[in-house]
Each structure stands twice: as structure tokens, then as C-alpha cells.
User: Fold this.
Amino acid sequence: MQIAKVCGTVVSTHKESSLTGVKFLVLQYVDEQGNLRPEFEVAADSVGAGINEWVLVSRGSAARQSPSSANRPLDALVIGIIDTVSMDTGLLYSKREEEY
Amino acid sequence: MQIAKVCGTVVSTHKESSLTGVKFLVLQYVDEQGNLRPEFEVAADSVGAGINEWVLVSRGSAARQSPSSANRPLDALVIGIIDTVSMDTGLLYSKREEEY
Amino acid sequence: MQIAKVCGTVVSTHKESSLTGVKFLVLQYVDEQGNLRPEFEVAADSVGAGINEWVLVSRGSAARQSPSSANRPLDALVIGIIDTVSMDTGLLYSKREEEY
Amino acid sequence: MQIAKVCGTVVSTHKESSLTGVKFLVLQYVDEQGNLRPEFEVAADSVGAGINEWVLVSRGSAARQSPSSANRPLDALVIGIIDTVSMDTGLLYSKREEEY
Amino acid sequence: MQIAKVCGTVVSTHKESSLTGVKFLVLQYVDEQGNLRPEFEVAADSVGAGINEWVLVSRGSAARQSPSSANRPLDALVIGIIDTVSMDTGLLYSKREEEY
Assistant:
């Protein structure tokens, strides 16, 4: 999985029919120092994540292993809202402190 | 999923037999500032996207989770035409304004 | 899918038993200006592609969605010989003109 | 598979329901000289790996081929704790020596 | 598939139980000029490849399409020992000549 920050949303009204009701979040990946990487990803949301939250994202067929995403043409899914990322060098992120 | 812009088409008459009737679009990926990235991708189209439209593209086995693509040797599928991409820093793209 | 040019072949006599009879082509990916990128790929051939032809290649599980490749340990398959690649800026490639 | 070093953990209380009880490790990939690469990955743990250990990590659908990970939206799994990595040029890593 | 050179082995005694007996090879990818690329990969071996041999490696779910790898958490498999790689510009590799 990758660590990413929710930084936007995508609206698409004309889409593959099984995607009705799916919320698309724009994510930016986070590097090992807590900075945003230039790449971004659009993922379906299974957990109700909001702007600026750090999340775990699964890609590939993993993105369809959830009741809300099964059998849909999705290749990325937000699977959890991150509380903390603890590295051997210290705390990289804490949702409570909202430092990032 | 990735955000991409439709910038071309590929014609192949001599192809794997299950691909008869599939339309191949050339896509260029879009970066987080709305610029085109150098990489491109060829995707099957499930939504009738046209040149210059911004689209959502799914890759991998996700590309075969649609009635028009199931059981075909496809690894990329256009799954929706994008209306808007809204970032925390403002509107990145709006189909109506056709700024991009 | 990716656009690639056939630039070689691989021979392997000692291989996984299900691969008997599979032809392995060496492909080089093509960038959006029609130049060869440094990366290359070895793909099984389902369409009888020849040296110097431009082809469409599918990767991942897509490579096994063809009668000749199903249930074999293949992750890349040539799925079509390209006639033309048309970009919004003009014709990138035409097999007939053999310019590339 | 990739060789990686365990360098942290991720805690997520609000997550996809099938992920209850899954431990998330932050891994940093190791290059061919034994140095840490900048990219990192979050993987589920199937073997009880601890901080600073070198591990083998499988990605993609491989990550769900274990009783503890099947049918969960996981795309990376620690599948083994590494004892030694032996290269033709000598020993790159030995858990016993704990040089890295 | 990718062309790679076998350059080492990984030993892991504490691993996911289905992996007992699997041999892990360290591979380095080869570029289009026959030089080793910096990236490396650990793959299971289905063909008895030895140090310094050039091999074909399949990644992703393809790595589990062999009797020895099915249903195991493996994402890379050596599927063949390469005899020759012939490019349009000449012979890149020949096992018999052992030039590389």
C-alpha cells in the first residue's frame, strides 16, 4: 500500500454504468520524509476520507476486494484513514496533531 | 485511476480476434498542475470519449471489469469522462470552461 | 496498452513446460514523438508480428486473455499490429509509409 | 519480490472492515549495494517481522495468496524474514551479523 | 517479460508456510545494450537457473501460472533460461559464447 494525502475530488457524470455512486478522490503520494511527491492518483473511497487526511491506498486488483468496489473497473481504493505513521527515527505523522 | 487527456487513436486491423470492434484511444497522462506528462497509454474506450477530453483511466485487471472489455486482452480502459477536477488549491479542470 | 516496435527475438529451450511453442519478441517502447524509449520488454506473440513492425502490447493478467496464452506464465502479449497512430497534432505512424 | 527493511508501522483505526487485526509495516526498499532506496511501501505482515529486519515483500495479487490476507484489499505482503542475501560478489546481508 | 541475469540467492527460513522449498534468486535486469540495470528483483525459480545465466522473468499474477508456484504469494518467477537474444542490430547475447 502507499501513504497518500487527500487533495481533491473528481466528478464524472458520463462514466461506466457500474460506477454510479462511487466517490473519486485525488490523492498525492507522500515520501519517507512526509513531503508530497509529484505523482498523484485517483482512488475510490471506501472509508469516507476527507480533504487533507492521510490515507492508505491499495492499487491493482486489491482495489476490488471490498463490498463497495467489487466487480467495478477500479484500480485504486482508499482502504483506511491513517492515525499515525511511526518510523524508527520518530513519529512521521499523527492525525491528532494535524501538523501536516 | 489516472487522469489523462485523449490525444489520438490507434488503428489495428490485424489483431487478436476478440478485439474486433474495440476502439483504441491514445491518452497522455496529466500531472498535478494540469500539464501533460510525457508518458502515454493506449486504452480501450467504454464511454465514447473524444479528442481533447479529460478522462479517468483504469489499468490492469480493472480494465476488464466492464461488459465491453471482459475476457479481452486489455490492460487499460477509459471509465469516465471528467467534468471537473477540484483540488484543495482550486479548480484544476472544468470540462465546461474547456480551458485545457 | 503500450505502443512498441519489434526489434528482436529471444530463444529459450530450457523453459517452463507450458511455454513450448511460444514465440518471444523483444519490443522497445515508443514515446509520444515516435522515438524509441530505452526500456524494452519481451512479449509473447499472438498475431505473427515481424521485425520493425509497430505493435500494441498488453501487460499483466491481460496477457493471458487469449487462447494462445491462457494459463501460461506470461505477463506481456502482442495483441495487434498497428496500421496507424493518429495524434491531434498529425499522423505519428503509418505502417504503409514505413517511415519508422 | 523485493528486498526491503522494516522501518516503521502505520496505525489506522478507521479502515475497511476486513482489515481488522492486520498489522501494517512501513518498508523501505534496498538497492543492490544494500543501501535504502527512497521509495517506501506499506505492507501487511504475515510472518511477525520486526523493526530493522530485512524482509521479502510480494506485491499485487500475490499479497492475497496467504490465509491471513486472502480476500482483503491488500496489495503488499511481507512473506519472509531474510537470513542472508548472497550475491556473486559476496555476502550482501546476513541477519546474524546485523551489519545493516 | 524481462531479461535478467541471475546474480545471487536469498535464504529465508522464517517465511509464509506455503513457500517451503521455493528457491529465491536475486536477478538484475539487463538493458537493451546488454548492461545490467541498477534495479533488481527476487524471483522464484521454476527452471533450475544458475548464477550468471540470463533468464526470462515473469511478474505479477503470471508468476503463479506454473505448478510449482500456483497459490503461493509469489510475484516474480524465472520461466526460462535464455539461449540467445537476437536484435535487429545483431546478437545481444548467446549463452554458448558466455560473453556476458
User: Anything to note?
Assistant: The two ends of chain E are 20 Å apart (CA to CA). Residues 2-94 of chain E form a domain with the OB fold (Dihydrolipoamide Acetyltransferase, E2P) fold (CATH 2.40.50.220).
